[in-house]
Design goal:
This protein is mainly α. It has six helices and two strands, in the order ααββαααα. It folds into two domains: 1-79, Multidrug-efflux Transporter Regulator, Chain: A, Domain 2 (Orthogonal Bundle), CATH 1.10.1660; 86-143. It has helices at 7-14, 18-26, 45-59, 64-75, 81-114, 133-136; strands spanning 34-35, 41-42.
């Protein structure tokens, strides 16, 4: 293993697949590997740290494009922490909005289910339980 880590060893140390490493290289998140005489990819120990960062960043919901921006800022010699803070703050706000929408959807579903047996069977194009106000979430207060 003269000169660096082979892709399999890097994958094992970083806890990712070799396929993921090649993908990150193609996407320019990970710098291109050096090549041995036999054309095997060889990586330095910094690649382990970079892949660890990528795993942690994706675990926080950052996209690959956002991760590339962060890495580019770092490679440009500047600390990317203010940029990361903004990204995470925006993601938290987005998640709050999605959570609110999901809670409202759950409330409408539960309201529809609770009215399921109280409704008389009515004519409907498909299913009267969905075609009523409880299913659509309209006309609040009328179940």
């Amino acid at each position: 293993m003269d000169g660096g880590l082979k892709i399999g060893e890097l994958a094992r140390r970083a806890g990712v697949t070799a396929k993921a490493i090649r993908f990150y290289e193609r996407q320019r998140v990970l710098p291109p590997a050096k090549r041995a005489a036999n054309r095997y990819r060889l990586y330095d120990d910094d690649a382990v740290e970079m892949l660890s960062f990528v795993k942690q960043a994706t675990g926080l919901g950052l996209t690959l494009a956002e991760i590339k921006e962060i890495v580019a800022i770092r490679r440009g010699g500047r600390p990317p922490c203010a940029h990361v803070h903004r990204l995470l703050r925006d993601k938290a706000g987005e998640l709050d909005r999605k959570l609110k929408d999901l809670l409202e959807l759950r409330r409408r579903i539960r309201r529809s289910l609770s009215a399921w047996h109280r409704r008389p069977r009515a004519a409907a194009a498909v299913c009267p339980h969905i075609e009523t106000s409880a299913g659509r979430g309209q006309r609040k207060g009328r179940e």
